[in-house]
Amino acid sequence: MSNPVSQSSNTSSPQVIVCADEASASRKVADMIVAAVNAKPSVVLGLATGGTPVKTYANIVEDFRAGKVDFRNVTSFNLDEYIGLSGTHPQSFRHFMELQLFNHINIDPSKTFVPEGCGDDPAAHAAEFEKRIADAGGIDLQLLGIGHNGHIAFNEPGSSADSRTRVVGLTQSTIEKNARFFDSEDEVPKTAITMGIGTILEAKQIVLLATGTGKAEAIRLSLQASPSDDVPASWLAKHPQVTFVLDEAAASELA
Ligand SMILES: O=P(O)(O)OC[C@H]1O[C@](O)(CO)[C@@H](O)[C@@H]1O
């Protein structure tokens, strides 16, 4: 069971839920996703990759195996993918999603959309990806992580609130952080395809999960600085239904 230690007292957005630790924050987000599927079996989920959601996905798999949730009518869209990595590459986000979630639940693989990093025309694919989201009726619940520099998906600092799914360059700091998933920094792709901030803000509900002291500054700036391109996650303050689920470490710089 999730064990929030504190919660913002009003209902305005962003709502902030602080949990004791990473395990309870991950459980809380899993509960929110499972509740969304149970409330609307044909829900359209927006999904994230990275180290942060791994435990959340493990909790969801646990709930599926316990018969608490059914994904057969769910559609999912992932936020981003590295340019140059095919879906079978061990560090591709498609592979991550299969390993962490899709292979362990009864989601229809044809309803799981992850941007393709190896197509001939990534710009055309980006436009097509936007169309697919619209054709699915839009994203009901979008899960996000956050980068140390405040990026969401691969929207690096400088990304505007109206940016759409597109090809982007990664900052050196993101390349260095993500090198931990590769054999060496040289292997980290320098470009990616990502949903835009504007695309993300169109989701009906957004949940951002952040854990660890490494995210504390990005969380403070996202929640307490004026929204600006400098901290892409700060644009979430413009959304009417966004929840930050944090562990105490990620919340440690909040006033
Ligand atoms: O969860 P991590 O591994 O700290 O990554 C932070 C963010 O950077 C990304 O890896 C880049 O999109 C996101 O998937 C993630 O939300």
Task: Write up what this structure looks like.
Catalyzes the reversible isomerization-deamination of glucosamine 6-phosphate (GlcN6P) to form fructose 6-phosphate (Fru6P) and ammonium ion. Pathway: Amino-sugar metabolism; N-acetylneuraminate degradation; D-fructose 6-phosphate from N-acetylneuraminate: step 5/5. The chain has helices at 22-39, 54-65, 93-100, 122-135, 172-178, 197-201, 216-224; strands at residues 4-7, 15-19, 44-47, 75-78, 80-82, 112-113, 141-144, 166-169, 191-194, 205-210, 242-247. It is an alpha/beta fold and 255 residues long. The protein has a domain at 51-145 and 152-210 and 222-242: Rossmann fold. The strands form 2 sheets. An 8-stranded mixed beta sheet has the order 1-2-11-10-7-3-4-6, with helices on one face. Helix 1 (22-39) crosses helix 2 (54-65). The longest helix has 18 residues, at 22-39. The radius of gyration is 17 Å and the shape is globular. Bound molecules: 6-O-phosphono-beta-D-fructofuranose. Residues 48-52, 80, 145-147, 153-154 line the site of 6-O-phosphono-beta-D-fructofuranose.
